[in-house]
Design a protein that fits this description.
The structure is a homodimer.
Chain A lengths: L4 E6 L7 H14 L7 E4 L3 H5 L3 E3 L5 H6 L20 H13 L2 E8 L1 H16 L5 E6 L15 H22 L6 E6 L6 H6 L12 E3 L7 H15 L2 E6 L15 E2 L5 E2 L3 H13 L3 E5 L2 H5 L6 H19 L5 E9 L4 E8 H4 L20 H7 L11 E2 L2 E2 L20
Parallel strand pairs in A: 1-2, 1-4, 4-5, 6-8, 6-11, 7-8
Antiparallel strand pairs in A: 2-3, 9-10, 12-13, 14-15
């Protein structure tokens, strides 16, 4: 008897290591051919299931699958598309497609919104009487998933921003005598300041950059901010600032007014760094430089955290093990056993507890003046960036894999309008 | 008899490898104690000489000097300060300081403006009858120095932008089905498009990102640009654009209107990426993301080109050898012997030929439609990013050195107003 097949898909904003999770899923499934048949990947996440656009991963070579571990982005395409719980036709279509392709395992790799999708699919088991084992796989640069110690993808983004900020600070301190006095780096994190907080890891000693963090959890106060910039330039001759794209005024409005929204109805942000530097140069007269990392911070596989790569792989591998074990509506999560040396293990958490939750920076991680982090935050963050995991290079550039992504033959005559 | 001492300083915008040149100078000088006494470094370039703020490099350990080879920024501080040829008092002051400290060798490490300073100082030999051997050391991320095959600092910036752009392109192609269709990376290069051109190295095959380069050498044509963006989204589902901060309209005006000027009277640029994405989203309706690399691209020592590091070190070492040989008013430059495999050697060029010259991208390096580069450009650029030269890491971050930078005792009673 042929074994049930599996469906795996990637969802939401991608990371430098989401493909390491894919690698964990695919390699582990191949090792368990006694339990799982071939793995289909959804082209562009859940959309691939709805449109019956399934990628046959069995045609990919072992080497190509292994190379996923060092390749950023989503190898099968991602999506920003949320299943509406009340939209019954979507679930009926999923069952139709899964049934047609004999799919008994569902793996969904994403953040909070995606775990919600995974949870809803898991409910089909009861509601639609379709037997499917459903496991979520955590991922998000924003590190805002609850329960898990951290979210795969975050450690590499953290290492990237801390490294970049340290390097830019060396540049700034070289220039500040006669030229630029302030450098602002804008990083991601719509509501949660984890990535901004990680910038603080760049500092080894007091006085080191960054001198100011602008966290989304702390309302922006122009007067106190400008006073802090002045004091920093006075003391060190320069001021390095890390600002979250999501920093807000005291009335809760984004400092960078949003102009468009993504498919989940979230405001699309970006561009607060030029705003901050305009403020500084007009009020204090300092020459400023600014950078916006944007996609660079979540795709910088060349400076990935080895710890992050290992965790991303482990949650992929464990998801398959959970599924083989018949555990459904769960997600493998990371539990911290010890800070230093960092020890962690994988635990099982119910999807119902992670879906649509957002873990913000707790107040005891934020320094008293709101412009920095505490020692507790540093203890939490420090191990997540440990270790280097360089990709192979070819002709001076990282050698990333592009899979063949061959579509499995369609079996349904019907199509589905998204 | 004590040997003449040397003065070394770093000038202009810094790079990821200017300290590798410093390492070459200091290690070579230490190996030639029979010819050169201690090396003083100017704190903040030529300003250190004018203000008699000399750093005694002889107190630094061998290990600290060696660590300069993997540390970005300017270890002794840089400056944007140009000697005015008609300003006789500046030269008289330099002679006063050099004389007081028995300085017979002058090394100035910088770009076109800095080579001009080095050239002017070399003229003191005749005009002021002060015996000084003066050697320029090339450096600039912009790659716009004439004669030399490339400028140390450029290869690492090129490797950084091509790597970052390739990674961001993997991200974009994952997202473009339902979300962002266009990604814009803004890079440095006020007048010369070398760094923008280097982004094209990210592409391995036709259709690969970047799909459009906006070079400062090609006047921006809105209609043709938008048509190209549309065609790219049509063909690949997305469009990756690299834009130079210095891209200009047909009337020669910077697309990003300048608001302030640096000490050399150059317009301070930045912020053309958001302008370009605004144009695209308003005219074509595509969701866009943008990043501005700014200081990150010229300080990213973690992804430096090994070729660049070697060349930076070699021009530092050779500058000292030239000086010991008594050759003055010269600069070591890189001569390309072969494209692939890349062979290069160091040659001697007169400072008079490099001062204040700007080497733009030649027209045969720009593709017919103006939005890309030719095979000739690719042959030129490809070897400059070859090889990785990772710095050591500690606690998950690059372990860069901060020198002690102890000031040499002052010998003059007079001060100098800059």
């Amino acid at each position: 008897m042929a074994h049930k097949k599996a469906f795996y898909a990637q969802s939401g904003g991608v990371t430098a290591v989401i493909n390491a999770s894919a690698c964990g899923v695919l390699q582990t499934a191949r090792q368990h051919a006694e339990a799982i048949g071939k793995v289909y990947a959804g082209r562009n996440g859940i959309i691939g299931a709805l449109t019956e656009d399934l990628i046959d991963t069995s045609v990919e070579s072992e080497a190509a699958i292994a190379a996923l571990k060092h390749t950023p982005g989503a190898a099968f395409g991602s999506c920003r598309y949320k299943l509406a719980h009340e939209h019954r036709a979507q679930y009926e279509r999923l069952i139709q497609v899964f049934h047609a392709h004999d799919i008994g395992f569902f793996f969904y790799n994403g953040g909070g919104d995606s775990q919600d999708t995974a949870y809803k699919v898991s409910q089909m088991r009861a509601e639609q009487a379709y037997p499917i084992v459903c496991v979520g796989i955590p991922k998000t640069v924003d590190n805002d998933l609850p329960i898990t110690d951290c979210s795969p993808g975050f450690g590499s983004a953290a290492k990237y921003v801390a490294t970049s900020l340290r390097e830019a600070a060396f540049d700034l301190s070289s220039m500040c005598r006669t030229s630029t006095k302030v450098f602002v780096l804008e990083v991601m994190g719509r509501h949660a300041g984890w990535t901004t907080a990680a910038c603080a890891l760049a500092a080894d000693r007091g006085g080191d950059a960054p001198h100011i963090l602008l966290l989304p959890e702390v309302a922006f106060n122009e007067q106190r901010f400008l006073a802090k910039v002045s004091a920093s330039v006075e003391r060190q001759g320069n001021c390095v600032i890390a600002v979250s794209e999501g920093v807000k005024r005291s009335d809760g409005e984004f400092l960078s007014a949003s102009r468009s929204k993504d498919a989940f109805g979230h405001a699309q942000l970006g561009g607060v760094a030029p705003l901050i530097t305009d403020l500084i140069s007009s009020k204090l007269g300092f020459k400023c430089h600014w950078a916006v990392a944007d996609y660079l911070q979540r795709s910088a596989r060349h400076i990935a955290s080895e710890t992050d790569v290992q965790q991303a792989y482990a949650v992929g591998r464990t998801a398959v093990e959970f599924a083989i074990d018949g555990r459904s509506a769960v997600m493998p999560a990371i539990r911290r056993v010890n800070d230093a040396p960092y020890h962690w293990e994988i635990i099982e958490v119910p999807l119902s507890e992670v879906a649509n939750q957002e873990k913000l920076l707790p107040s005891h991680f934020i320094s008293a003046d709101g412009f920095g982090i505490t020692e507790a935050a540093r203890r939490y963050l420090a191990p997540l960036i440990l270790g280097e995991a360089y990709p192979p290079f070819k002709n001076g550039l990282p050698d990333y894999v592009c899979l063949r992504n061959v579509a499995a033959p369609r079996k349904l005559l019907t199509t589905f309008a998204l």
